Amino acid sequence: MAKRIVIDPVTRIEGHARISIYVNEAGEVEAAQFHVGEFRGFEKFAQGRPFHEMPGLMARTCGICPVSHVLAGSRAGDMLLGLDPPPAARAQRRLLNYAQHLQSHALSFFYLSCPDLLLGFDSPPERRHILGLAEADPGFVRRGVRLRQFGQTIIETIGGRRVHPPGSVPGGMTRPLEREEVERIRQWLPEALESVQMALDRFKALLGQFQEEIASLGDFPSLFMGMVNGQGELEIYDGAIRFVDAAGNLVADNLDPARYFTYIGEASEEWSYMKFPYYRPLGYPGGMYRVGPLARLNVCTRVGTPLADRELREFRQRAGRPACATFHYHWARLIEMLHAVERIDEITADDVLLDPRVRARAGQNANVGIGACEAPRGTLFHHYEVDDTGLVRRANLLIATGQNNLAMNQAVTQAAKRFVRADDPAEGGLNRVEAAIRCFDPCLSCATHAFGRIPLLVEFRRRDGSLLRRLPA
Amino acid sequence: MDPAGRKVRVATAWLSGCSGCHMSLLDMDERLLELASRIELMASPLTDWKEFPETDVTLVEGAVGNVEQLELIRLIRSRSRLLVSLGDCAITGNVPAMRNVYPVEDLLRESYEAQSAPVIGVPGRGSAVPRLIDRVLQVHQVVEVDYFLPGCPPDAGAIYELLAALCEGRQPALETRRFG
Ligand code: SF4
Q: Domains in chain B, ordered, with CATH?
């Protein structure tokens, strides 16, 4: 008899989801599905609202990466006004985005994944969390907490607050920065650099222990997508889109983010509130692609800052180019953190940041505004169609996490086949299936979200799908 | 610790929200590590509890938007000594409640049918994911709530003061705080 093993909720991820593992009559894991269970409907209730509200409203899709939504919404607004914000505004926004990558990556690595990596996938679940880890290794956790704090402090300084910062608006930023504020940010740099470097060294030393996880938490070919600048370097604010395939071939380059709908399609399935984006030329579901830290390192020619580029060379030697193992998202995230600290150093050392002209003003000059940027989890697109009175008629958000949806499903299937014994699913095995999801650091708040309560549940179903028995009853 | 010297069991849950209130909780930064000696962190998006346990204090982020959340918040209430509505979504419905002016079917049509291709299925019409309820509800419309901490999100200092006060068995002093 076929049965279904359900992991609900998937924990230590940002948002609500469950995983179904399907077991065939021979008792083998056949497939797994990642269900995202929450829906809020921003596309609909944005309709009829003024486009100037969008950065603030769309920030509320996600409290972890609100800066990305504020930036994409502001950039779509820039396009509706038909202007380029002044150079100081561009510098402030880039700084905001690097700060956000840093804080969000620190959350993913230290708070959500290190309990698995340092305490062990099989360690007792009651203590397998950030405070449990803080007991075991207080110095390490304190560094992680302070790294996140550093990112959040920059966001607060430039954006006005840490969560849902109102500082970026269509046309630029609301306020110039003072030299003392920038100096205060710069004082953190040596500590931040040291902490990231320490985390990287610690992670690399652990790799030998995780050979099985590297091979089985989602190691498969796919396309990769990310933004690069004119020199092919990683860019997170205003680059062009590049796709490479699993052999490292350039599939498409220099694509305009504002034309995203010509190369990305979105499918809907009944079993998840999160949509399934795909690369159009390859169709659905063949056009599976991955976004986020691993994808960005795979598509870029180089990162563009010296320390991170040195790490990238080692990464490519050891993990392959492109690196296809989903587990290496963790490594890529750490290299991006190093890169973010270097870029924060660079941007805060340039006086352009202090120029008092931070906002351009204009009336509405277009009816379509599309804004994109690299969010911590991948490329984010906001698309608004606005009538002549400035009210949004139609909105579409192509969320970073959503673009990993097909790949996340493939990763949980691979992990379940390797680590879940259908007759007697062990907690540590199920935790590894969840860990496959944690590699992607999905932000389901963006797509959706909630919190479930059903513990591990096994259902035995007849062929027609009717329920035979449920454990526990 | 509570006045009797036991660690206070704290859980956090999210319903329909953006996780920003949870981020504000983490924005206590190092004060969170300091609290760790006085609280036991139970079910939360940060831990691996799969079933909601008995707690002394539960902080709830988000409004009630689907049938599972409706069931969950009742269960949480029955197992929590004190329940805190954390942030504007839990307290007023805030952004999630902006969908209340539209019938659920219109929302699903707009988000999935109108904007996807291929449409192999529309979530929320079957049973694989929780069905949306017609109107998003405030937490206290469903269960009794002991404390309300407003803001979108509430300020980290206010969350800290609330937790510290509950650990010490006194009333939180929040009069001088800014909200939002
Ligand atoms: S109150 Fe604000 S920060 Fe909290 S969940 Fe709701 S939208 Fe997010």
A: 8-100+132-167 (3.40.50.700)
